[in-house]
Amino acid sequence: MEQYYLRSNLNKIPELIKLAPGASKSFLAFERDVFHDQGAVPVKMKELIAIAVAHVTGCPYCIDVHVRKYKELGGTQEEILEAVLVAASTRAGAILSHATHALLSYEDNCEKHSEAEEKRPQPGPECFC
Questions:
Q1: Is-above-0.90 flag for pTM?
Q2: Taking every annotated instance into account, which residue ranges of this chain make up the domain Carboxymuconolactone decarboxylase-like (predicted)?
């Protein structure tokens, strides 16, 4: 494989649909309901949200598809960049706020360190990430 992400790879989607028709039908109906039903959020805004989320998930296919749709709906590059920056800031903020767990774990570990010295370590991994 020369490149991992070619737009032409999306031509394989019908093959994926054939391999899992039930799940595909459910997913495509869900996607249609989310993006095309007229709800409280206008379609143009949904596409901008999708662009920001695609940057967080790191999906170049989604970035490409949703930017094209957003542009067709009159979206601008400035709006896209601002939405991506909001997503980046939000993601960074989530990482920072989750650092509180590291502090709490560290403090908890320090308190229990003397107790743990008396116990034998359990076999196997403690974390599966």
A1: no
A2: 22-103
Tokens of 46: 């949904």
Measuring CA to CA, which residue among 40, 35, 36 is closest to residue 53?
35
- Confidence at 58, pLDDT banded by 50, 70, 90: very high
8-state DSSP, 11: G
Compute the distance between CA of residue 95 and CA of residue 82 in angstroms, rounded to an integer: 20
Q: What is the 3-state secondary structure (H, E, C) of 18-53?
A: HHCHHHHHHHHHHHHHHHHCCCCCCHHHHHHHHHHH
CA distance 9 to 94: 33
Phi, psi of 96, deg, nearest 5: -65, -45
Nearest CA to 74 among 108, 98, 47, 100? 47
Two tokens at 22? 């039930």
